[in-house]
Amino acid sequence: MWLIDFTCVSVPAIPQITPSIRAEASALGIDDLFFVLNGNSRSQKNALSRVLQSSPTEYVDVPWQDRAELARELAKLVVNKVIPPGIDVVYSNNPAVEVALAQALSADAEVTFRPFPRESESIGQGDWPEDFIPIDDALSILYSVLTPNGLRRTDIRGMLASRDSRFDKSSKDTRARTPRLISMLIEEAKRRHKVVEHHAQHPSNGLISLSSNVVSRDLARGNDDDRFESPQPLSVQGFSVLRADDMGPFSEVRWHVYEEIAKAVKDDPTVPADKAINDALEKVRANDGVTLPKGKKYAWGNALNFLYLLFSKSAVLGFTGDDEAALTIDNREKPLVRLADEWQYRLDGELVIHLLGKGVTVAGDRLDELAGLLYCDRRYEAQRRAARVLRLLKEADRIQDHDGVYRRA
């Protein structure tokens, strides 16, 4: 049996791709095809019936952007519904599928993974909002933001938005939220052989970089484009990366929240951990003395999710009779009786670790940039905070100093 994963393929492209796959299968004497589509394709079921014919079809109700979750759901379908007759070939344009199936299937399963015909990656007529931003202009902006080390797919929109507000999803213009906008842009750049995508370390979140011929050509011309000579400052690039990954940093309010959490634990050692965090944020939200960015509504709901995520990354919470622990589903309702030493700096260190993991450069001689990113303040005290964060990470052997540039250990 062949598995055809259409969860990340637009409905109009399915009739274009399916005949060639059927023809190949038929030539090899394969009659069994199993199709998996995204749940939002259900409304097109009748229109696709002639293409899919009587082949078994399942739908996965997961947003197409979450390719890792799509792959996990598809693997469950394979285990529950496809295994009895066996599976020989998987067609998919989601690289996470190969990883998910390798984990789900037995070690001796022999499965061949194949991409869809390359034509399926091109932008379909009428898909790209040309009247909003011409595709050639959008591609030029994409090429300008790609760093020498490349960017993860999830980081690209933030970087594009920092260059051109038309890419900002919070824009009043609804065309900024065109479905698959960034994916279409990346695939078009790949189709033109201007960028390449690597999946080795992060199967569901590929690393996008300029193809070697583009880089060598621009360097030969002496191009002074800042993607080669002057990377974006940390305060700009770092913010875009953190925001794109739902990692805050909510620098305007984060330390105010820290202060309220410390007060709550001191005043009431029976307060549950999650309540301490939530109530602290609410107090800061009600404080008119906190300076917030002007011009748009502050994302308080996202701030709470970010704080829970941040506390889940570092063992800074002290519970009765236990060592310090990170926030988990099992301990979040336990009384929070103490906080670890220098816990605020350890939490801020998780932001630095995340940036380094994304290939962002953090240099020891630019503490002003790091302070600006973490604290919205480049003055002396803020720089001392930033230095303390780096010192704690070095002492914990989580980062290493390579000629003044920090890397994850």
| Number of E-state strands | 13
Mean pLDDT: 78
Strand order of the largest sheet: 3-2-1-4-5
Query: So what's the overall shape?
Result: globular
Cα-atom Rg, whole angstroms?
24 Å
Fraction of residues in H or I helices: 40-55%
SSE class: alpha/beta
Q: DSSP strand (E) fraction?
A: 5-15%
Instruction: Figure out the total of helices.
Output: 15
Verbal overview:
With 409 residues, this protein is an alpha/beta fold. It has helices at residues 14-27, 45-52, 67-82, 96-104, 135-145, 153-163, 181-191, 212-220, 234-244, 254-267, 273-285, 300-311, 343-357, 367-375, 380-395; strands at residues 2-6, 33-38, 57-60, 89-91, 112-114, 151-152, 195-198, 207-210, 317-319, 336-339, 362-363, 399-402, 405-408. Helix 11 (273-285) packs antiparallel against helix 12.
Give me a quick take on this structure.
This protein is an alpha/beta fold and 409 residues long. The protein is built from 15 helices and 13 strands.
What order do the helices and strands come in, and which of them pair?
Blueprint: E1 2-6, H1 14-27, E2 33-38, H2 45-52, E3 57-60, H3 67-82, E4 89-91, H4 96-104, E5 112-114, H5 135-145, E6 151-152, H6 153-163, H7 181-191, E7 195-198, E8 207-210, H8 212-220, H9 234-244, H10 254-267, H11 273-285, H12 300-311, E9 317-319, E10 336-339, H13 343-357, E11 362-363, H14 367-375, H15 380-395, E12 399-402, E13 405-408
Parallel strand pairs: 1-2, 1-4, 2-3, 4-5
Antiparallel strand pairs: 6-8, 7-8, 9-10, 11-13, 12-13
